[in-house]
Write a structure and sequence with these properties.
This protein is an all-alpha fold and about 180 residues long. The chain has one domain (about 5-170). It has six helices and no strands. α2 runs antiparallel to α5, α2 (about 15-55) packs across α6 (about 145-170) and α3 (about 60-90) packs antiparallel against α4. It starts with a helix and ends with a helix.
Length: about 180
């Protein structure tokens, strides 16, 4: 009997544990989903603010573009290395470290006094983002709770598809 079989056996005989395991999986999927969403959203949302950054930081447009480039450069260049580190040392610790780094760097970006500081803090934010984004797709693919996590991901995907479909219908239908 494998680990998954014994975990399923425990749930079958202990309904209280069965319910709490489902809640834990949902919370884990929601937390990881939020982290991956934030790291992805942050990659592009700054593009909207580029003209404002030029004015506020009194910098050239070329210099301000490095705010976006530094983040994306760090994310794309470190993705495979960070994923490998997670395989060797554990995904959870690196993911949670990424949340801390991303959050602290976000605060620092908001406090940046000059364009050079903002570029450096965005690169740091990219480090935190890659630590979060590298593990989102692979979470729940193994272990004793893999099946429940997979089910939670499927339910979440169906709900998100319904929201997006409804939004498109509302936009495309006049009146």
């Amino acid at each position: 009997m494998g680990r998954l079989d014994s975990a399923m056996d425990v749930r079958r005989h202990d309904p209280e544990r069965s319910a709490s395991v489902g809640t834990r999986e949902w919370l884990a999927v929601a937390g990881i989903g939020c982290g991956v969403f934030m790291s992805t959203l942050d990659a592009g949302i700054v593009n909207v603010t580029l003209p404002t950054l030029v004015e506020e930081l009194q910098a050239s447009f070329g210099a301000v573009q490095w705010v976006v480039i530094s983040y994306l450069l760090i994310m794309t260049s470190l993705m495979l290395g960070v994923a490998r580190l997670g395989d060797m040392h554990g995904k959870k610790g690196i993911y949670l470290g990424g949340v801390v780094v991303f959050t602290a760097a976000s605060l620092l970006c908001g406090l940046a006094p000059a364009i050079e500081w903002l570029i450096a803090f965005r690169a740091l934010q990219g480090v935190g983002a890659v630590m979060m984004a590298a593990f989102g797709p692979g979470y729940g693919t193994g272990g004793e709770h893999g099946r429940a996590v997979g089910r939670a991901r499927g339910d979440g995907s169906r709900a998100w598809s319904a929201v997006c479909s409804g939004s498109m219908l509302m936009v495309s239908c006049p009146g």
